[in-house]
């Protein structure tokens, strides 16, 4: 501790491995399941139910003028057309997160990029879901050779290039609500101010993802879905 009573250690989440007494899938859904687990913690057996999620990736694409590529898409649970960044589930067995991010950028925005980095990672709702999202920063972008044929909620996606500072203003003004976009915009502007020095390598391992079991970052477990990105 320093003179102010604050720790001098680097701030970091810590992994825990409680004793799992019992576990079962209590609901099997089209996209994700619900699990019930009993675990021993602080001398008690505790029961918790949570969404058993594949995890997801998201992509903040920036052009040479520091404009971010945003999409707007209908989200039924909240009855809202949200401004978002391209994103999707890690629902293809064995697909590395970086490959999934490149696929989602092409499928949702008809873009590809030469320069990829890890921008941020977060748990969407750690009290009720094991969903982990990794956000990539994609730069030196260009259109794909062919437009992707989108269906369902993605059929009427709209795309817009927006200055990064304007996106941050919308976050701080509480006009946009999507968590991946919020985290990406705030992280990107902060990273830009430090010359992008804290970006991670695009192929970095992802040890905090609950279902990643290989050093190369491939997904070793997860719920199979129909392939539609619903993160």
- Helical/strand content category: alpha+beta
Biggest β-sheet strands, sense, barrel: 5 strands, mixed
What sequence of helices (H) and strands (E) makes up the elements? EEEEEEEHEEEHHE
Number of strands: 11
Strand content: 35-45%
Mean pLDDT: 89
Distance between the termini: 40 Å
Parts with pLDDT < 50 across at least 5 consecutive residues: 214-230
Helix content: 10-25%
* SS field, number of helical segments: 3
Computed CA radius of gyration, to the nearest angstrom: 19 Å
3D architecture notes:
29% of the residues are buried. This protein has three helices and eleven strands. Helix 2 packs across helix 3. The C terminus is likely disordered. With 231 residues, the protein is an alpha+beta fold. It is globular. The strands form three sheets. A five-stranded mixed β-sheet has the order 7-4-9-8-11. Strand 1 and strand 2 form a beta hairpin.
């Amino acid at each position: 501790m320093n003179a102010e009573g604050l720790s001098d250690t680097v701030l970091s989440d810590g992994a825990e491995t409680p004793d799992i007494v019992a576990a079962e899938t209590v609901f099997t859904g089209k996209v994700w399941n619900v699990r019930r687990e009993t675990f021993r913690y602080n001398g008690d057996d505790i029961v918790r139910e949570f969404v058993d999620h594949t995890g997801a990736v998201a992509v903040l694409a920036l052009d040479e003028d520091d404009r971010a590529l945003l999409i707007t898409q209908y989200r039924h649970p909240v009855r809202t057309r949200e401004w978002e960044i391209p994103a999707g589930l890690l629902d293809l067995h064995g697909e590395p997160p970086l490959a999934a991010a490149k696929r989602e950028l092409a499928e949702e925005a008809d873009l590809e990029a030469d320069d990829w980095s890890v921008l941020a990672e977060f748990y969407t709702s750690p009290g009720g879901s094991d969903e982990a999202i990794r956000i990539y920063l994609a730069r030196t972008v260009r259109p794909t050779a062919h437009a992707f044929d989108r269906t369902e909620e993605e059929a009427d996606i709209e795309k817009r290039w927006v200055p990064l500072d304007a996106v941050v203003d919308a976050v701080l003004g509480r006009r946009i609500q999507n968590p991946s976009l919020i985290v990406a915009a705030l992280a990107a502007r902060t990273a830009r101010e430090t010359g992008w020095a804290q970006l991670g390598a695009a192929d970095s391992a992802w040890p905090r993802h609950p279902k990643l079991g290989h050093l190369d970052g491939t997904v070793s477990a997860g719920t199979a879905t129909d392939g539609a990105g619903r993160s």
